[in-house]
Write a structure and sequence with these properties.
By secondary structure, this protein is an alpha/beta fold. It is globular. This is Probable sugar-binding periplasmic protein.
């Protein structure tokens, strides 16, 4: 989910959150390069990098609560420099920072897409012995575990996704989520006959159109015998996205039956439009739940699996862990950084934090109930209609996002898009193999 555009200085939205000035606690924690401060307390400036600016108010509260806890329990005055660049730019910014020895102490990465390459590059601290690890659900822990068995991040978001749909619109017209591409075409026609726009299009941010790729690749790999090893073959320079050309059937159907000015509408604007009922469906994940419900708390929306062809078995839910927090191996504030990532799964405060973000339960300390849209996706999972998010390199996802923007604008053909993806994967292999 990320990309190019403009000078870094104009992108970084840095918010300095001061630690609380609680008088409690008299311990003397060591903060790496911490400086002494009034009353014998240590002071630490922790740099945290998370590309979710739409959730800033919740992270601000979390940070303030953490700072109060560090002061009370360890007598460390923590101030946190929080960087929240847009998702489109975040990966490139972070890679630049890491490569120039200017790593944030704690940074968010995508568990499936980015942990392998970041770990191989030596950027990630081994967190295997941290208290949070024992709290992770068995279904979640593998997503933040390396091939050699080390846990290197604390997960925040686990995802069960396909597309979002307006349950009221569907119920009013007697519709149910379609199970094949032909059924989707019928659903589209019924919506149009009732003057309802079928799809919300929001392609201003390239990471949004790239969502088609993991949905199509994941479904085909899990239902078509010849595609089961697609990722392995691409990693060995022995495959081609020409095998995935049929994904344009659903892409074309969505693009031809969507809202206008797609390239001018970003994620937040899309969430507001979906909340207002401007379209019945949005190729998007429930990670936008908090933003949607902020615009319209009464909206009843669900999660369904996206049909990519006429095989109903291929209409599956994508299961993934995405945003996860890692600690820089070079952090000079490692003790406080480790305290911070453990606080994510704090026995007392984690429930409120995850509920505010509208994230799924991921740990044994989470006792809050799952959200209705999570239950929708779980029905597919129980029926055996789900797959693990395919491990497509982030650079390839970046490329497909830009390419599908150009395809929508009529500037690239289907074959152009597929060739660009092949080239991007080969470039990735040259650097990483």
């Amino acid at each position: 989910m990320k990309m190019w555009k403009g000078a870094l200085a104009t992108i970084l939205a840095a918010a300095l959150i001061g630690g609380c000035s609680s008088n409690a606690g008299s311990g003397t924690g060591s903060g790496g390069n911490a400086q002494g401060s009034e009353g014998g307390a240590k002071s630490v400036n922790l740099k945290v990098f998370i590309a979710q600016p739409r959730l800033k108010e919740h992270y601000d509260k979390f940070i303030a609560d953490f700072a109060a806890k560090e002061k009370a329990e360890k007598n460390i005055d923590v101030s946190i420099q929080l960087e929240m660049p847009p998702a489109d730019n975040a990966a490139q910014i972070l890679k630049t920072r890491l490569a120039s020895n200017d790593a944030p102490d704690v940074f968010a990465i995508h568990a499936i897409n980015e942990i392998p390459s970041y770990y191989k590059a030596g950027y990630l601290e081994d967190l295997s012995d941290q208290p949070f690890v024992g709290k992770l659900l068995d279904s979640v822990k593998p997503s933040v575990t390396t091939t050699d068995g080390k846990v290197v991040a604390v997960p925040l978001e686990t995802l069960s996704w396909g597309y979002l749909y307006d349950k009221k619109i569907f119920a009013d017209l007697g519709l149910t989520p379609p199970t094949t591409l032909t059924e989707m075409k019928t659903t589209v026609e019924k919506l149009k006959a009732n003057n309802i726009t079928p799809f919300l299009l929001s392609y201003k941010e390239a990471w949004i159109p790239q969502l088609f790729l993991p949905l199509a690749v994941g479904a085909k790999m899990n239902t078509e015998e010849g595609e089961k090893d697609f990722i392995d073959r691409m990693n060995a320079d022995q495959g081609s996205f020409a095998e995935m050309k049929s994904m344009f059937e659903i892409i074309d159907l969505v693009n031809a039956n969507g809202t206008e000015k797609a390239l001018e509408v970003g994620g937040d604007d899309g969430a507001a439009a979906f909340a207002e009922g401007k379209a019945a469906m949005w190729i998007q994940g429930p990670w936008y739940a908090e933003t949607i419900l902020k615009s319209n708390p009464e909206l009843d929306f669900g999660v369904a699996a996206l049909p990519i062809n006429d095989n109903p078995d291929a209409t599956m839910i994508n299961l993934s862990a995405s945003t996860s927090l890692a600690v820089s191996k070079t952090s000079k504030n490692k003790e406080v950084a480790l305290d911070f990532i453990n606080y994510v799964l704090d026995d007392n405060d984690s429930n409120a934090f995850f509920q505010a973000l509208k994230f799924n339960p991921i740990a044994t300390v989470h006792t809050f109930e799952s959200y209705p849209w999570v239950n929708d996706a779980t029905e597919y999972v129980k029926a055996g209609k789900s797959y693990q998010d395919p491990a497509i390199p982030q650079s390839v996802k970046d490329e497909v996002g830009k390419a599908l923007q150009s395809y929508y604008a009529g500037q690239m053909s289907q074959d152009d898009v597929l060739a660009a993806l092949d080239k991007a994967w080969k470039s990735f292999n040259k650097v990483n193999n």
